[in-house]
UniProtKB/TrEMBL annotation:
Full protein name: Helix-turn-helix domain-containing protein
Keyword Hydrolase: no
GO biological process: phosphorelay signal transduction system
GO molecular function, one term: sequence-specific DNA binding
SUPFAM superfamilies from the UniProt entry: CheY-like, Homeodomain-like
Amino acid sequence: MTGHARFEYAQEALQYGCFDYVLKPVDHDVLKEIVKRAIEEIERRQERQAFEEMLEKYRRHWKNQLPILVEKFWQEVLAGRGPAGQDRLDREFAMYDIPLSAGDRVLPVLLSIEQWDVELDARDESIMEYAVRKAAAEIILGDRKGAVLQDRNDVNLVLVYLPDGALADRDALKTACLQYVRASNDYFHCRVSCYVGDTVRIGEIAGSVERLSQLERANISNPQTVVDGLESGEALGGSAAGPSLPSFMEWGILLDNGSIDELVLAVNETLRRFQEESVSRETLELFYFGFVHMLFQAAHRKGVSIYDALAVQEMNDGQFARTPLHMQAWAVKMVQKAGQAFQDRHRDASAVIAKIQSFIQDNIHKELGRDDIAGAVYRNPAYLSRMFRKETGLSLTDYIAQAKIERAKRLLIDTNDKVSHIAEGIGYTHFSYFAKLFKKMTGMTPQDYRKKHQTLH
């Protein structure tokens, strides 16, 4: 508000951000209206600023969550539930900041974790698998655009992006994979192999990964290696000599879940198709070995020997099936017998687990090992360990420690024995290790636990 009516004054005032320019004398109502509009403008600016701050907060949150969202996106694609249509695919690529378009290609590399050279419980194994994937991002991807993820079947993958018609340098990629195999062994005590696929379109990734999985299953004598799928012939599918083999991985899942009728239907459909297409003897042999391998893998996951479920001669009979119909009769018989045996063995396994738990409780005062327990129930130690973890969700080591600490807690409350004597009484000769384990599992020292709980009794 001023008494100067010169244009230069008004111009300079507006340049400095003046809200309005009013000459004296001013009407009181006009002044109130100007002040009201000024307040409203201030409030709008404050609201806009608050909104921008909130938006920036969620932008940061989105950016932090982006790797997880990208992994979920690819998991959906690999499960066959990716976005339909090029436009929608392009939108999702843009949304997740993936530098691809619908017509671009991807090169998958399957990371096969074959063995850990150190004993890990389930939680530590998951943590170490995450570390191995991070190492793959650094060594295999390096400066390449791509993603490292674990699909819904726990298969670890590297996806190398090839935007705008880019070509993959396979030799350089295989060299990086070999470095990764060595580094995993040196730094993570982990034996891995890499299976390098072909460049495929987005909709073909799931099929390419399945073919790499077939290569992985077929590789039983070449650990810690880099396998080029393009040099591995038929196993990567696509041979023009005959029809494609079924997904034995999916069949194995049906057998795991006890979906025997559904699996029998799939077997019948596949082999009837083979009959109609007059497949070669070689195709039948490939089916046989893939099918038998599927049975072995399913038995392994169940923690049983396949030879306890099926007679050796019965399994060998499939090799001599001369027609798809003969193979069909044999395969259906194997599925039904294996499915029944797995159900029966599950009941037997529950009885063995009960014996193991009883043995541990009866010998809680000893320093128990896997071999001691296996000997007590007349089982192979490695097989027993897998079966126990599968049935209880705990490793034998974790269960023994849990049982010992539970016994120690009861003794701390019900007796006045020295803590060191209690530790010795449950098989821990090193008191410091016992005290550390007790605090890890209960959140307090043995002395504090006794002090807290004895006062309540």
